[in-house]
């Protein structure tokens, strides 16, 4: 049997609701009984309000705002039986019964302590009503005290963040996601966070989704050679970002990763190299230094020697991605004392090169053969 006692709640409402409950079976034609119920909302002194259904009590929850000062017990509701028997004693059992919550001989429910929703959001209790012979007047009834949230916690970022993105990435490319927490109720504005970029960090090259915290590229012209790192400041604000919300900030360091977007360039237009005529074959006779702003791992220069000299010379990349000129055929000062030829350098860049207008991709090499005294031949 369901308990038939009334639960009075703190508040001050003077409204009468009339509603209709309709049930319909699946027959043809359908049988539709109609039932009219009412919910009485009655003024009781300055704050108690009775909310009950005439057939059964329908309110099984009381609400207490967290952090409400409680230097003395304060009333949150009232228990009352539907039966005509005089109630001599009210008893409550369950979570916080007789410590946090108490009931007096009139059935008035009190809170004796300040509550913290983040510590415990609800308390399940059972109410019993006894007559003068200490017997139950009706079955026990269960009810819940819900602790309502207030904005008493600020957002918290667990750490700082790091991200990276390739230079020249498309606008909208995701970089990193940040996330803050808030101990307040996430189903209320108190715990709903909004993210934004704020000073003194860079706000021109990146943007953040206000609800997800995803940071993405705002432009498509990131250039590592111009700026290799950005530091952003992200703000999280509760109350859905309203000015009254509490805030927290964290930093996000974004590294711009290199791609091959610069042409290899000779450091000068002409090179003059002196080589003794007895120089060993396949050994370096001179280095053609290159200038390339890209990181060494992304440098991909290739060399082309002018036609007619490919049999005599070759170029090999060294560890610095410069070109070592190698001798492939023996030299003889008495036969030829110098060589003049053109070398071109090419670079497989992924995008239009930053230095396409200034790069020196052709150089003239003058090789001077130095005479070496040779012993007479008999």
UniProtKB/TrEMBL annotation:
Q: Report the principal subcellular site.
A: other
Q: Where in the cell is it found?
A: Cell junction; Cell membrane
Keywords from the named record: Calcium, Cell adhesion, Cell junction, Cell membrane, Cleavage on pair of basic residues, Glycoprotein, Membrane, Metal-binding, Repeat, Signal, Transmembrane, Transmembrane helix
Q: Which organism is it from?
A: Nothobranchius korthausae
For the biological process aspect of GO, one term held by this record is: cell-cell junction assembly
This chain belongs to which protein, by name?
Cadherin 5
Q: Specify the Cadherin domain's residue ranges.
A: 89-157, 157-266, 267-378
InterPro entries (alphabetical): Cadherin, Cadherin-like_dom, Cadherin-like_sf, Cadherin_CS
Name of the encoding gene: CDH5
The Gene Ontology CC terms held by the record are: adherens junction; bicellular tight junction; catenin complex
Which segment of the chain is annotated as a signal peptide?
Answer: 1-23
Q: Which is an annotated GO molecular function term of this record?
A: protein phosphatase binding
Report the SMART domains cross-referenced here. CA (SM00112)
One Pfam family linked to the record: Cadherin
What membrane topology does this protein have? Single-pass type I membrane protein
């Amino acid at each position: 049997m369901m308990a038939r006692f009334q639960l009075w709640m703190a508040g001050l409402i003077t409204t009468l609701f009339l509603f209709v409950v309709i049930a319909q079976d699946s027959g043809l034609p359908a049988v539709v009984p109609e039932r009219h119920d009412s919910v009485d909302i009655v003024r009781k002194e300055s704050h108690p309000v009775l909310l009950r259904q005439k057939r059964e009590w329908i309110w099984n929850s009381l609400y207490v705002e967290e952090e409400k000062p409680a230097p003395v017990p304060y009333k949150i509701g009232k228990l009352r039986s539907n039966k005509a028997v005089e109630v001599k004693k009210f008893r409550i059992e369950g979570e916080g019964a007789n410590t946090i919550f108490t009931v007096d001989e009139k059935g008035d429910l009190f809170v004796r302590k300040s509550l913290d929703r983040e510590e415990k959001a609800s308390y399940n209790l059972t109410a019993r009503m006894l007559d003068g012979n200490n017997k139950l007047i009706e079955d026990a009834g269960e009810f819940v005290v819900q602790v309502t949230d207030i904005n008493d916690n600020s957002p918290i970022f667990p750490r700082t963040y790091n991200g990276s993105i390739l230079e020249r990435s498309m606008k909208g490319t995701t970089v990193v996601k940040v996330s803050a927490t808030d101990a307040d109720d996430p189903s209320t504005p108190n715990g709903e966070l909004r993210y934004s970029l704020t000073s003194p960090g860079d706000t021109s090259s990146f943007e953040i989704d206000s609800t997800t915290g995803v940071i993405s590229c705002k432009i498509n012209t990131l250039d590592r050679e111009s700026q290799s790192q950005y530091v952003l400041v992200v703000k999280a604000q509760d109350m859905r970002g309203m000015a009254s919300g509490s805030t927290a900030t964290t930093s996000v360091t974004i590294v711009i990763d290199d791609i091959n977007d610069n042409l290899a360039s000779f450091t000068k237009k002409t090179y003059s190299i002196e080589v003794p005529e007895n120089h060993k074959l396949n050994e370096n006779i001179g280095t053609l230094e290159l200038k390339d702003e890209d990181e060494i791992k992304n440098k991909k220069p290739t060399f082309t020697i002018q036609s007619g000299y490919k049999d005599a010379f070759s170029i090999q990349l060294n560890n610095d991605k410069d070109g070592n000129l190698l001798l492939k055929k023996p030299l003889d000062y008495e036969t030829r004392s110098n060589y003049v030829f053109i070398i071109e350098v090419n670079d497989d860049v992924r995008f239009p090169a930053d230095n396409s207008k200034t790069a020196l991709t052709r150089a003239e090499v003058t090789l001077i053969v130095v005479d070496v005294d040779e012993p007479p031949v008999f």
